[in-house]
TrEMBL record:
<feature type="transmembrane region" description="Helical">
    <location>
        <begin position="756"/>
        <end position="774"/>
    </location>
</feature>
<feature type="transmembrane region" description="Helical">
    <location>
        <begin position="525"/>
        <end position="543"/>
    </location>
</feature>
<keyword id="KW-0812">Transmembrane</keyword>
<feature type="transmembrane region" description="Helical">
    <location>
        <begin position="632"/>
        <end position="655"/>
    </location>
</feature>
<dbReference type="GO" id="GO:0022857">
    <property type="term" value="F:transmembrane transporter activity"/>
</dbReference>
<dbReference type="InterPro" id="IPR001851">
    <property type="entry name" value="ABC_transp_permease"/>
</dbReference>
<feature type="transmembrane region" description="Helical">
    <location>
        <begin position="605"/>
        <end position="625"/>
    </location>
</feature>
<keyword id="KW-1003">Cell membrane</keyword>
<dbReference type="InterPro" id="IPR027417">
    <property type="entry name" value="P-loop_NTPase"/>
</dbReference>
<keyword id="KW-0762">Sugar transport</keyword>
<feature type="transmembrane region" description="Helical">
    <location>
        <begin position="549"/>
        <end position="568"/>
    </location>
</feature>
<feature type="transmembrane region" description="Helical">
    <location>
        <begin position="781"/>
        <end position="803"/>
    </location>
</feature>
<dbReference type="InterPro" id="IPR003439">
    <property type="entry name" value="ABC_transporter-like_ATP-bd"/>
</dbReference>
<keyword id="KW-0677">Repeat</keyword>
<feature type="transmembrane region" description="Helical">
    <location>
        <begin position="675"/>
        <end position="696"/>
    </location>
</feature>
<keyword id="KW-1133">Transmembrane helix</keyword>
<keyword id="KW-0472">Membrane</keyword>
C-alpha cells in the first residue's frame, strides 16, 4: 500500500518555488547553518532529515521570515528576496506548522482562528460555519467556544495543521507533524498532504521517522551540524544510507537486545486500577522487563501513566518490590517523563543544569551542603550517555532544540535514582540517533532491576523495545502480548479490532450542560460571585444603618467608584498583556496637577480645553514611554512602571509643592452631573465597560491584546505585531487613567501632588477581585467594574459601621484572598468539566 501511494505522487517535479543559495546563519560566533543550498519544487513533498540541533528549525525559520540569514540568498518564484519577513512570507503564501503549535490557550478555538487567519477568509460568511469547515479538514470536532487549553496535545497539532491548510498555501512547511498523532490521524494528514501537493503546493516535511518517507515524500535532504550532508529521491536511497548521513555513523540495530528470559522476580504489580476512564487494569512487570502500553489514542493510556506516576488518584493497588504504595509514595518513587515536555517536562525559567538536577538535589549534598563539583560531574556524565547537545550547562533550557530538551527530561528522571520509570511517549520529537541512546538507557535501567513502563503511539517502537505490551481499548485491557507475540501487526490488530464498551453515566442535555460549562470557563464567570457579594454586603450594612441606601450615599459610592473604575480598566489592559502598570496612581495625581493650571475659574474656555488636551497628551506620552522601555529597553514591566511612578511623582512636586489651583466649579458640576441616584459619569463608565468587553471578545484588536498576554511567542508566530500591540496597550492604559484623573480632579477640586498615589494598589485590587489573571491572557472589564464598586462599597461600609480605618485594609486583604481561592476553584472545576 505504501508503495502504491508513493507511485501516485512520483510525478516529475514542478518549477522551483523556493531556492536557498549558500545560506549561513550564526548566533554570535556559533554557526547554526553553513552554506546550505537546496531547492523546493511545486507539487513535491520534500523531506528534511537531521538530528536535533542539526539546523532544521533554523532553516525553516529563515524560509518563513522569522530569522534572517547571515549570508546567502533566498529566491521565491525566481525573484531574489533580500530580506524575508513573516508578513512577506504570509503574503507570498508560505504556511508553517511548528513542532510546538502556536496555540493561544487563553483564547477560544474560534478566536484562535480569527486572530491567526486573514479577515478575508471570513468575509461575507458566518464565522462559525467557516471555522467548522476549517476544523473538519483534519477531523476535529470540538466546541468553537471552548478555550484552547482544553485541547489534547494531538488535537493541538491537528488544529495547527488545519489553520495552515485554511490558507491554501503555495509553500507548506510541516515540522514533525505526526509526533503526537495516532495512525488514523496520521493517515488523514497524509491524505491532505497528497491533495495539496497534487494541487501544486510545495510541501517541506521535517520528520525523524524514516518509515514516513516511504509513504509521503518524493525527495529528501539531510542536514548534520548545520550543513547539507546529502540529498536524493526517496526511491533511490536506503534507510541505512539515510541513517549514516544523519548521524555520521551506521547504527547496527535500531533497538538494544531484549531480556533473554523472564525473571521470576516481580518488580511492579498493578492490580484493579480503576478511575473515571480506566476499569480494572492489572498487570505485572518482571525484573528485566520493559512493559509497553498501546492502543488507539484516547483510550486511557495517558491516564494510566499518570496513575503509575502518582499524579492521578485511583482505586486499586500498586506494589513496587513487594511494598504497596499509595499516591504520595508513588510520587516519590516514580520518575515521570511526560509527553508534553513544554507544559510538564521543562521549567522554562531554569537553566539546562537546573532542569536536569532539581528533582535530585539531595544526591549532590555532602553533610547537607550542595556539592557543585559532584552535581556537574553527574550531569556531564549522563549528558554524554544521551548525547545531549547544549551550548553550555548554564544556558537557558529553551535555547536547546526540542529533542535535546526531551533528553534533559530523561536525564532528570535517571539522576533521581527512581524506583520506577514511567515514560509517556519518550521519543516524541527525538531524532534517530538520540532514540537509540534513549532505548539503550531504558534497557540498561530495566536490566538493573528498575521497572520500566512505556506508552507509545508507535507500534514499531513498542515491538522493538518492549518485552510485554498491554493493549487498552476504552480504558480496559483487551490483550496482553508477551515475547514473540509482541509484533507491530499484533499490536495494531488488537487495538483496532477491540469491541469493548464502557458504560457512561447519563449526561445532562447538551444545550444546558454545554452552556453552563461554557459559563464556568468564561472570563466573566467571576462577575457572578462578585455581584452576589456586593449585594449581600449592601444588605447587611443597610440592616445596621438605614442611611446606607440613601440616594446621597448611593450617588457617592458610584461617583467614587467611577474614578477607580476608569483607572482599574487601564490596569486591566496592562494585566491582560501579561504586564502591570505601577505608575497609574501617580499619573492620575500628576494629570490633576497639570489641570489645576488651566481649568480654573479665571480661565477662558479655550484655555480649559487646552488643559484637557494636555492631560491626555501627558497620558499618551507616559504610556508610550512605559511600552518602549519594556519592549525595546528590556525593562521588566515592574521596573519600567516603577521608574515612571517615581519620575511622575517627582514632576508633580516640581509643579506644585503644596495643594493649589482650584478647579472650575462649573466644570466640576458638569462632570458630576446626577441622574437619579447615579452620576452620569458612572453611566459613561458602564458604557465604556460594555464597549471594551465587546471589543475584547469580538474584535481583532481585543484578540491580539489577549493573545500577547496568553503566549507572546505563539502570538508572534501567529502573525501578531507583538511590540506594536504592547506599546499601544500601555498607551490605552494611560488614556483610561486620564479619564480616571478627570473624575479625581472633580472630587478633590485642587491640584494636590500627594493625591492619586493610592490608586495604584486600589486598581490592582479591583482588577484581581474582578478575576483578571495576573499572568495575562484572561480578564474582563465587567469584573473590573464590579471589583471597583465592591472595593468602594467596602470603604464606605466601614464608615457606616463605625469601624476604624484599619478595617478597610483588613477587609480588602480578605476580599483578595477569598477571590483568588474562589476563582481558582471555579476554573479548576471548569477544566475538569471540559475534560
Amino acid at each position: 500500500m505504501a508503495e502504491a501511494k508513493l507511485k501516485d505522487i512520483e510525478e516529475p517535479a514542478g518549477d522551483v518555488v523556493i531556492r536557498l543559495a549558500g545560506i549561513s546563519k550564526y548566533f554570535s560566533v556559533v554557526p547554526a547553518l553553513t552554506d546550505v543550498t537546496v531547492d523546493f519544487h511545486a507539487g513535491e513533498v520534500h523531506a528534511i532529515l537531521g538530528e536535533n540541533g542539526a539546523g532544521k528549525s533554523t532553516l525553516m525559520n529563515i524560509i518563513s521570515g522569522t530569522l534572517r540569514p547571515t549570508d546567502g540568498e533566498i529566491s521565491f518564484d525566481g525573484e531574489p528576496i533580500s530580506q524575508m519577513t513573516p508578513d512577506m512570507a504570509k503574503a507570498r503564501g508560505i504556511g508553517i506548522c511548528f513542532q510546538h503549535p502556536a496555540i493561544l490557550e487563553d483564547l477560544s478555538i474560534l478566536e484562535n482562528l480569527r486572530v491567526a487567519l486573514p479577515s478575508s477568509l471570513f468575509a461575507g460568511r458566518e464565522a462559525h460555519g467557516v471555522a467548522s469547515d476549517i476544523l473538519a479538514t483534519m477531523g476535529l470536532k470540538v466546541p468553537l467556544r471552548m478555550r484552547a487549553d482544553g485541547l489534547t496535545v494531538a488535537q493541538k497539532h491537528l488544529f495547527e495543521i488545519a489553520k495552515a491548510l485554511a490558507l491554501k498555501p503555495k509553500v507548506l512547511i510541516l515540522d514533525e507533524p505526526t509526533a503526537s498523532l495516532d495512525q488514523e490521524s496520521t493517515d488523514m494528514l497524509f491524505d491532505r498532504i497528497r491533495e495539496v501537493a497534487a494541487a501544486g503546493t510545495s510541501v517541506i516535511y521535517i520528520t525523524h521517522r524514516l518509515a514516513e518517507l516511504r509513504q509521503i515524500a518524493q525527495r529528501v535532504t539531510v542536514l548534520r551540524d548545520g550543513r547539507v550532508r546529502g540529498g536524493a529521491m526517496v526511491r533511490d536511497v536506503s534507510d541505512t544510507e539515510l541513517v549514516n548521513m544523519i548521524v555520521g555513523r551506521t547504527l547496527k540495530a535500531a533497538f538494544p537486545p531484549k531480556a533473554q528470559a523472564a525473571s521470576a522476580e516481580t518488580g511492579l504489580s498493578v492490580a484493579g486500577i480503576t478511575t473515571g476512564d480506566l476499569k480494572d487494569i492489572s498487570f505485572d512487570v518482571q525484573r528485566g522487563e520493559i512493559v509497553g502500553i498501546a492502543g488507539v489514542a484516547g483510550n486511557g493510556q495517558p491516564e494510566l501513566m499518570r496513575v503509575l506516576a502518582g499524579l492521578v488518584p485511583a482505586a486499586g493497588t500498586i506494589t513496587l518490590r513487594g511494598q504497596s504504595l499509595d499516591q504520595r509514595a508513588l510520587l516519590r518513587a516514580a520518575a515521570f517523563m511526560p509527553s508534553d515536555r513544554h507544559v510538564e517536562g521543562v521549567a522554562s525559567g531554569l537553566t539546562v543544569r537546573e532542569n536536569a538536577t532539581y528533582s535530585a538535589l539531595e544526591k549532590f549534598a555532602v553533610g547537607g551542603i550542595m556539592s557543585r563539583t559532584r552535581e556537574l560531574d553527574q550531569v556531564r556524565s549522563i549528558f554524554a550517555d544521551l548525547a545531549v547537545k547544549t551550548p553550555g550547562l548554564e544556558a537557558p533550557i529553551l535555547a536547546l532544540s526540542g529533542g535535546n530538551q526531551q533528553k534533559v527530561v530523561m536525564s532528570r528522571a535517571l539522576l533521581s535514582d527512581p524506583g520506577l520509570i514511567v515514560a509517556d511517549e519518550p521519543t516524541q520529537g527525538v531524532d534517530v540517533g538520540a532514540r537509540f541512546e534513549i532505548y539503550r538507557i531504558l534497557r540498561e535501567v530495566s536490566d538493573a532491576g528498575t521497572p520500566v513502563v512505556v506508552n507509545s503511539s508507535d507500534a514499531v517502537e513498542l515491538e522493538g523495545l518492549c518485552d510485554k505490551v498491554i493493549v487498552l481499548s476504552r480504558g480496559q485491557i483487551v490483550e496482553t502480548l508477551v515475547g514473540s507475540e509482541v509484533t507491530e501487526g499484533r499490536i495494531v490488530a488488537a487495538a483496532v479490532n477491540a469491541t469493548t464498551h464502557v458504560g457512561e453515566a447519563p449526561k445532562a442535555p447538551a444545550s444546558t450542560a454545554g452552556t453552563f460549562r461554557h459559563l464556568l470557563q468564561s472570563d466573566n464567570a467571576p462577575a457572578i460571585p462578585l455581584a452576589i457579594v456586593t449585594i449581600l454586603l449592601g444588605l447587611y450594612v443597610y440592616s445596621q444603618n438605614e442611611n446606607f441606601f440613601s440616594v446621597y450615599n448611593i450617588y457617592n459610592i458610584f461617583l467614587l467608584a467611577t474614578a477607580l473604575g476608569f483607572i482599574a480598566m487601564g490596569q486591566t489592559v496592562a494585566l491582560l498583556m501579561g504586564g502591570i502598570d505601577l505608575s497609574v496612581g501617580p499619573l492620575a495625581g500628576f494629570l490633576v496637577v497639570v489641570a489645576s493650571f488651566f481649568i480654573n475659574d479665571d480661565q477662558s474656555t479655550g484655555v480649559m480645553l487646552a488643559g484637557f488636551l494636555l492631560m491626555f497628551a501627558g497620558a499618551v506620552v507616559t504610556g508610550a514611554v512605559n511600552g518602549l522601555l519594556i519592549r525595546f529597553a528590556n525593562f521588566t514591566p515592574i521596573a519600567a512602571t516603577l521608574a515612571m511612578y517615581i519620575a511622575i511623582q517627582g514632576f508633580s512636586f516640581l509643579l506644585r509643592d503644596n495643594p493649589d489651583g482650584y478647579i472650575n466649579t462649573t466644570v466640576t458640576d458638569w462632570i458630576n452631573w446626577q441622574w437619579g441616584p447615579f452620576p452620569v459619569a458612572f453611566l459613561v463608565l458602564v458604557a465604556f465597560t460594555l464597549g471594551g468587553e465587546y471589543l475584547l471578545r469580538r474584535s481583532r484588536m481585543g484578540w491580539r491584546l489577549r493573545a500577547v498576554g496568553s503566549d507572546e511567542h505563539s502570538a508572534r508566530r501567529a502573525g501578531i505585531q507583538v511590540n506594536r500591540t504592547y506599546v499601544a496597550g500601555y498607551i490605552l492604559c494611560s488614556l483610561l487613567t486620564g479619564l480616571g484623573a478627570i473624575m479625581l480632579m472633580t472630587q478633590i477640586g485642587v491640584g494636590d501632588p500627594r493625591q492619586g498615589v493610592n490608586y495604584t494598589l486600589a486598581s490592582i485590587t479591583a482588577v484581581v477581585l474582578g478575576g483578571t489573571s495576573l499572568s495575562g491572557g484572561r480578564g474582563t472589564f465587567i469584573g473590573t467594574l464590579l471589583g471597583a464598586i465592591l472595593l468602594t462599597e467596602v470603604l464606605n461600609a466601614v464608615t457606616f459601621l463605625g469601624l476604624t480605618q484599619t478595617y478597610q485594609y483588613f477587609f480588602q486583604g480578605i476580599l483578595v484572598v477569598v477571590a483568588a481561592l474562589v476563582y481558582s476553584g471555579i476554573r479548576r472545576r471548569a477544566a475538569q468539566g471540559g475534560a
